[in-house]
Amino acid sequence: MKLSPCLAALLLTAQPLAWLHAGDGVLDLTSLHNYAGQTVPAYITRNNTPGNNTITNAGATLGRVLFYDKRLSRYDTISCASCHKQEFAFSDTDTASTGVAGTTGRHAMRLINARFSQEAKFFWDERAASLEAQTTRPIQDHVEMGFSGTNGDPAFADLVTKLSAISEYRVLFAQAFGSATITEALVQRALAQFVRSIQSFDSKFDTGRAATGANNANFANFTANENNGKTLFLNPPNQGGAGCAGCHRPPEFDIDPNSLNNGVITSLTVTTDTSNTRSPTLRDLLGPTGQTNGPFMHDGSLATLADVINHYAAIPGNNANLDNRLRRPGGQVQTLNLSPQQRSDLVAFLATLTGSAVYTDEKWSDPFTASGELEVIIMPAATSGIQNLGNGTATITTQAAAGLTYTFEQSTNLSTWTPVATLTADANGMLSRTVSVVPSTFYRFTYTP
Questions:
Q1: Quick one: 332 exposed, middle or buried, by C-beta within 10 A (0-12, 13-18, 19+)?
Q2: Are 444 and 415 spatial neighbours (Cβ–Cβ below 8 Å)?
Q3: What is the dihedral of CA 399, 401, 405, 407, to 10 degrees?
Q4: What secondary structure, in 3-state letters, does the chain show?
Q5: I need a labelling partner for 356 at 20 to 30 A (CA). Which of 13, 163, 244, 437 fits?
């Protein structure tokens, strides 16, 4: 990564700087993407964001860079995005994802709409108490990203030292949190803000839900099969339905925090594992073209939605941690008398939960070039302005990166510059300084990380 030049405004005669790399690999901190003010439908009410880590544009921007930066792994080869890919709803098409020292013990969970859930715990087995706590666990895993502090690995403190030596990160942390000091807690907060910003509410279901105002009414934009599948999803088994909504609660389609395991007890690492009780939202199980966003379940053992429906239609076995909603009187497990058409209708309904923008929106995309380069713009010269106040003074303004502190300097030869004042860009990223109009005197704002 590198910072763009910091020259912002010259009084009298000066040519604006030419900005390089005006395409991929440019992160403009003076014009941040909108993460904090995204539109959320009124019918979406669940939110696991803690009060001390609300999403900000600067925080989520930092989180985006961290999420895609392979330097967060021991050998600079693996990033969070290596296992959670935007084109697959931030999941992986491989059953087990590749890390720095092997493959993961569970399938990579989709990160779509992670914020919009009552469940605050993360990982399939809910071992992380919050998304913040989850974000650095893969970094500190010997197999995944290798800053474990065990097995000869460097510790997370070594990663902090590594990031602190990168000037761009000092700028990004200063803008997001008001200090260039990097800590694990701030890394967690930034990554969690980015992940919580990833949302998908432009599906066929959302169009129908917005128009109808209720989950259980027929949607005019649905086919008969899709509406029938929705009814099957919503209704419990004793009312002729499949009971899916009992655990996967619409309209968020998040997992009930009280759910237990679903009868899939195989594992990628051990013979039997009944500890998996978490699930991602059911939104974006499929991609926009209908392809699966990777295999299903913690072990990736079910390849298609039809396989998933068949599993729930006839739970294959009992175990002590099986969710009670999958049990039947007399100690039996769930068997649903679903016809082939009903199973097909359920699949058709689940396909309506897929959005489109999340797969291509730049704010969730990789900011780095293919070769791992990133240019950070903190002060574009093109947005500088001079207002002559008519009394021998003029005001110089420029767009900068909000929250960062800059130096205002003057010169008579464009070679030697003298600091005049320090200024902090306001919440809108603006810097402003009024000066006396003196012939052959030049002014500029500069930033030094």
A1: exposed
A2: no
A3: -40
A4: CEECCCCCCCCCCCCCCCCCCCCCCEEECCCCCCCCCCCCCCCCCCCCCCCCCCCCHHHHHHHHHHHHCHHHCCCCCCCHHHHCEHHHCCECCCCCCEECCEECCCCCCCCCCCCCCCCCCECCCCCECCHHHHHCCCCCCCCCCCCCCCCCCCCHHHHHHHHHCCHHHHHHHHHHHCCCCCCHHHHHHHHHHHHHHCCCCCCHHHHHHHHHCCCCCCCCCCCHHHHHHHHHHHCCHHHCCCCHHHCEECCCCEECCCCCECCCCCCCCCCCCCCCCCCCCCCCCECCCCCECCCECCCCCECCHHHHHHHHHECCCCCCCECHHHEEHHHEECECCCCHHHHHHHHHHHHCCCCCHHHCCHHHCCCCCCCCCCEEECCCHHHCEEEECCCCEEEEEEECCCCCEEEEEEECCCCCCEEEEEEECCCCCEEEEEEECCCCCEEEEECCC
A5: 244
| pLDDT on residue 297 | 98
The structure's pTM equals 0.92
Q: Residue 382 is which amino acid?
A: A
Pairing mode, strands 26-28 and 375-377? parallel
29/159 Cα distance (integer angstroms): 24
Say what the pLDDT of residue 439 is: 84
Residue spans of the chain under pLDDT 50: 4-23
Q: Which residue has the tokens 């009298």?
A: 12
Which domains does the chain show, CATH number per domain? 1-21+376-449 (2.60.40), 22-199 (1.10.760.10), 204-357 (1.10.760)
**Rounded distance between C-alpha atoms, residue 405 and residue 419, angstroms:** 13
- Quote the pLDDT of residue 382: 63
